[in-house]
Every structure is written in C-alpha cells, then in structure tokens.
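User: Can you model how adenosine monophosphate sits in this protein?
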Amino acid sequence: MTEDCIFCKIVEGKIPSAKLYEDGDCIAFLDISPAVKGHTLVVPKKHHETLLDITEEGLKALMIKVRSIAKSIVDATSAEGFNLLQNNKKIAGQMIPHIHFHIIPRYPGDGQDFSWKHVKYGEGEMEEYKNSIKKRL
Ligand code: AMP
Ligand code: ZN
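Assistant: Here's the modeled complex, given as structure tokens:
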C-alpha cells in the first residue's frame, strides 16, 4: 500500500469500486469515467508505477488475467473487438501512477477514435532509431 494511491486504496477496500474480479495478485473493476461502457481496469495488487517497474513474474500473471477478463467483457457486451491500453508516465497520459491495463470494448458507433497523428522520419533517421534501440535489446 502506497499512501495517497487511489488504486492501492481500492485494493485495500478503503474506497469503493465496481469490482468484477479479484484474486491474490490482481483486481479488475469498471473505470469510473469510461471511454466506452464496459471499460475495465486490471490492476496488480502490489504497487508498481509503470510497466518497467513490475516484476516479470507479476507481469506474466497479470497478462494472463487481462486476456481472460477481456474475453469475459467481449462475451458479456457482444463487443466486436476491444482496445488494450496501458499508459506509462504523465507524458503518456498516465493519471494514476499504479500500473494498470485498460480493456475497452468496441461497438459499431461507440463514438471513440484511438487513432493518432503520424510523423515522418528524416533521411537516415529510421536507421538511427533502429540501431539505437536494437543494440540495447
Ligand atoms: P490512466 O490515465 O491510464 O492512469 O488511467 C486512469 C483511469 O482510472 C482513468 O480512465 C480514470 O477514469 C480511472 N479512475 C480514476 N479513479 C477511479 C476510481 N476511483 N474508480 C475507477 N476508475 C477510476
Ligand atoms: Zn498503488
């Protein structure tokens, strides 16, 4: 439990949530301000800020739950598909600094659009990005 973390407080039952699922490692509940009805958050019980902070073991367990909860959401809502989103740090839109996955069911005419603006690489720049990332893997 980290002081002042809303998701730690939900895990601890100190603030209410529309809880869908809970086990020893994670909790899933409806987003209070959904992008689309049925928008669900899957949150590990242990506090880690981002994807880069959670342990590999924790992440594996979490991803298995994310998939099975996504399947249940699709079944329950008859969604045609879903978006899986995960924001890391404020610059990327992370409002709650406790790692979580968003599962957002998608229906025809749901009014959402997760497309982004596209940018272009300059001459040789794509190669530079490729090499710089690749040598760190
Ligand atoms: P992010 O921007 O990726 O950190 O997403 C945080 C999400 O948490 C937002 O979609 C909020 O609507 C949602 N949220 C914030 N507080 C609560 C809460 N008490 N219960 C359910 N969802 C919440
Ligand atoms: Zn937390």
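A couple of observations from the model: The mean pLDDT is 97. The first strand starts at residue 19 and ends at 22.
User: Helpful, thanks.
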